[in-house]
Write a structure and sequence with these properties.
alpha/beta; Rossmann fold; UDP-galactose 4-epimerase, domain 1; 2 domains; 3-stranded parallel β-sheet; 12 helices; globular
């Protein structure tokens, strides 16, 4: 009997996209979507969905046993800006959920795990330009701390127990299908909505804050590429650097104005500016490209055109 796939945090920005793509590829009944609440109707209505608390090992165990799960995508997390507001909540969710799936894999209940890390693992002492795979990591945010610690546990469980866990450090993710989820890079999603709805955007980062970004299609492609790669090609079990394209709010505004010349922006940095300032400007993802063939498809011009076109076509705008 084919073992099924469990997605934890399936209603989130990336999780909801994974559900849609994997159900199309593997069959609706083979993808079990779960989240703490039913907040995405497409995810809930398009296949098997269950309420599940990622902090509960027994709830995860029950889902695995009832549905004959072999692969787990652990997408549940409290993101950077929200984590700064609720640090204890972020630590409990981000850490306990990872320990739960690692332990269940160690027990032999799970064959393969995907767990996302983030560029938030880096900090102000990290080289900012073309940040290398192996470098100084001194994160100054709660979210970054949880991801850095998580990376070390992933590597430990692989080295000590042979747990097949795979991870990539997501940059900022840009998507038209889901609303922003509380991340510092979410300005690059909000700005498209505001450009079309109001013609003006109040940006919470400064004009020249350059950050690594990626279109959602590329993020999903990278996730599936690493999960489908032969085990011997996945040589890093902490997490792989990943980048699509780097740009600043000012550069993004200029790209949008090529389509909407009247669009205006005001820059009023808030507490998220300090978070962004601690992160890299650009990422060297050579190991991912060499080990399992990663490559991106969307540049800034492509992202802008696709976001504006899809948002106009959708019911969201």
């Amino acid at each position: 009997m084919q073992r099924k796939t469990l997605i934890i945090g399936a209603c989130g920005q990336i999780g909801s996209e994974l559900v849609r793509i994997l159900r199309a590829q593997q069959g609706t009944d083979n993808i079990i979507a779960t989240d703490i609440k039913a907040s995405n109707r497409e995810v809930v209505d398009s296949g098997i969905f269950e309420i599940l608390d990622a902090k509960s090992r027994e709830e995860i165990r029950s889902a695995i046993e009832r549905h004959n799960i072999g692969t787990v995508y652990l997408m549940a997390a409290l993101l950077s800006a929200k984590a700064e507001q609720y640090p204890e909540k972020a630590w409990r969710l981000n850490m306990s959920s990872l320990f739960n799936v690692l332990e269940l894999a160690r027990e032999g209940l799970i064959n393969r795990i995907f767990w996302p890390s983030s560029i938030a693992v880096f900090g102000p002492t990290t080289p900012k330009v073309n940040t290398p795979q192996h470098t100084i990591m001194e994160p100054t945010t709660v979210y970054g701390i949880t991801k850095q610690v998580g990376e070390r546990w992933c590597d430990y469980y692989f080295s000590r127990y042979g747990v097949d866990i795979r991870s990539i450090r997501y940059p900022g993710i840009i998507s038209w299908r889901t609303a922003p989820g509380g991340g510092t890079t979410d300005y690059a999603v909000e700005i498209f909505h505001e450009a079309l709805e109001k013609g003006h955007y109040n940006c919470f980062l400064s004009e020249d804050t350059r950050l690594p970004m990626m279109f959602m299609d590329d993020a999903i492609k990278a996730t599936l590429d690493i999960m489908n790669a032969p085990s011997e090609d996945v040589l890093i079990r902490s997490s792989y650097n990943l980048e699509g394209v780097s740009f600043s709010p000012g550069e993004l505004v200029a790209s949008i104005q090529e389509h909407l010349p009247e669009f205006t922006v005001e820059y009023n940095p808030d507490f998220r500016q300090a978070i962004a300032d601690s992160w890299p400007n650009s990422i060297d993802d050579t190991p991912a490209r060499e080990h399992w063939g990663w490559d991106h498809n969307f540049n800034l011009k492509d992202i802008t055109a696709e976001m504006l076109t899809k948002l106009r076509q959708s019911s969201m705008i």
